[in-house]
Design goal:
This protein is of the alpha/beta class. The chain is about 40% helix and about 20% strand. The strands form 5 sheets. Strands 9-10-8-7-6-5-4-1-13 form a 9-stranded mixed beta sheet, sandwiched between helices. Strands 14-15-16 form a 3-stranded antiparallel beta sheet, with helices on one face. Helix 8 links the parallel strand 7 (about 205-215) and strand 8 (about 235-240). Bound molecules: S-adenosylmethionine and iron/sulfur cluster (SF4). The site of iron/sulfur cluster has 11 residues, from loops.
């Protein structure tokens, strides 16, 4: 074991969240679209209605810019943009429906962003009604949305509830005025309280809050205030994300004064303290970054080893086909990924020409599938079984990494398996990285 500061330096490196393997930087830039369409057609034909499909719809608009944000978003105060976008997404959906030999059974819909609640309740109704028009809704379905507490109205919530939505996730990040000013996101607690009460009154059964640690000007007392205030509202789930500071990718982050960012050891202390306050508050730590109340579905699935992971994060639904619609949206067919154009102009152009807007993507090899299985098992179950057929590759790339993680007390390795230790739980991403052959090579 090494000194705590050396240990923190070693593990305070940006590591992928592994919502896909291989991760997006290793995908091909110009995916073979005819091959993708054929694969989609085949995968849909061989899939069964019991599994159904998942839909992710990316709704990119936000009314103002939070400068820490790493999401694909477009800032606009002009709500006329809603109509053009809605038409494009529905046209994209129609193109995919033509590839389906029977009406799809919808298991999951997730409206993500950007800020889906930027759209008017009426437009959200039009969008979802059209998606469901030629589909069957799975008996065990889950419809969810990301909302901004500042603009989610009771009318939004009632409309979404009537369409079958029962889950909402609110961006909270931090509840201190000093931090909110530093990240350009002024969001009074009262707005969050009202948005949460409205969701419950409308009938939503699951409310999630996103919190971030490592933001500028965050301190332990301020984080304590954020967590204590959040817990008074008893969210069913909480995400506790590490602030990803990548100013070379997100230029608005250059507006953050790096002197205001917590040091690696301060950031580790924020994580450690935050995690124990959440656990003391009655939440169970699930996989990477997530916490849920004891009887919450995600928590039950985690304990029963039934958790899955895809681009939307952790889920209890395993549908096999995840179709992403909208700018930058990602689809996952199990054996291939595709990502739509990340620019709104490019997305509109392709859809306008009657084409798919797919840009990047990846067709998985057998080796990719095997190593993805390990990454998913580590992320969802905290252990994985090593197949002797892959020993040469494991010996060359993965085992040296795992031995180092074992020396740091983060995993236990035996001949046939790897298990994450309690000390290793905060480092799941680093452990997954030991199976990331693309990154290691
Ligand atoms: C699409 S936003 C949530 C909905 C809505 N736009 C809002 O901000 O309330 C998704 C979440 O990603 C997280 N996020 C965004 N940028 C991040 C960053 N640089 N590091 C860590 N988490 C980030 C935030 O917690 C945010 O709530
Ligand atoms: S955090 Fe949410 S509201 Fe803020 S810019 Fe990002 S997507 Fe938009």
């Amino acid at each position: 074991m090494q000194a705590p500061s050396a240990f923190l330096q070693k593990y305070n490196r940006p590591v992928p969240r592994y919502t896909s393997y291989p991760t997006v930087p290793f995908w091909q830039d110009h995916l073979d679209i005819p091959r993708w369409k054929q694969l989609f057609r085949d995968r849909f034909a061989e899939s069964n209605n019991a599994d159904g499909i998942s839909l992710y719809i990316h709704l990119p608009f936000c009314e103002s810019l939070c400068i820490y944000c790493g999401c694909n978003k477009k800032i606009s105060t002009n709500h006329k943009v809603e109509e053009e976008y809605l038409q494009a997404v529905l046209k994209e959906w129609d193109t995919y429906v033509q590839l389906m030999e029977r009406p799809p059974v919808i298991r999951e819909i997730h409206l993500g962003g950007g800020t889906p609640t930027f759209f008017s309740p009426d437009n959200l109704r039009r969008l979802v009604s059209r998606l469901l028009e030629r589909s069957v809704v799975h008996t065990d379905h889950s419809l969810s949305i990301e909302g901004h507490p500042n603009n989610t109205t009771r009318e939004h919530l009632d409309t979404l509830f009537s369409l079958g939505f029962r889950r909402i996730s609110y961006g909270v990040q931090d509840l201190n005025r000093e931090v909110q000013e530093a990240i350009h996101r002024i969001q009074p607690f009262e707005y969050l309280r009202r948005a949460t009460a409205d969701a419950r009154a409308a009938g939503f059964t699951s409310v999630n809050f996103d919190l971030i640690y490592g933001l500028p000007l965050q301190t332990l007392p301020r984080l304590r205030h954020t967590i204590a205030s959040s817990l008074t509202l008893q969210p069913d789930r909480l995400a506790f994300y590490s602030y990803a500071h990548t100013p070379w990718l997100n230029c608005s982050q250059r507006l953050i004064d790096e002197k205001d960012l917590p040091s690696p050891s301060e950031k580790a202390a924020l994580y450690g303290a935050g995690k124990s306050w959440l656990i003391e508050g009655g939440y169970t730590n699930i996989g990477m970054d997530h916490f849920a109340l004891e009887n919450e579905e995600l928590c039950v699935a985690w304990k029963d080893n039934r958790l899955h992971r895809n681009f939307m994060g952790y889920t209890t639904q395993a549908s096999g086909i995840l179709l992403g619609l909208g700018v930058s949206a990602i689809s996952d067919l199990g054996s291939a990924f595709a990502q739509n154009d990340k620019t709104l102009g490019g997305y509109y152009r392709s859809i306008g020409e009657g084409k798919l807007a797919v840009k990047k993507g990846y067709f998985l090899s057998e080796e990719d599938k095997e190593f993805r299985r390990h990454i998913l098992d580590i992320a969802c179950k905290g252990s994985t079984v090593l197949d002797p057929a892959w020993t040469p590759v494991l010996e060359e790339w993965t085992l040296p990494q795992l031995r180092e993680l074992a020396a740091d007390g983060l995993v236990i390795i035996d001949e046939a398996s790897v298990a994450v230790t309690k000390a290793g739980r905060p480092f799941l991403r680093h452990i997954c990285k030991a199976f990331d052959l693309h990154l290691l090579r």
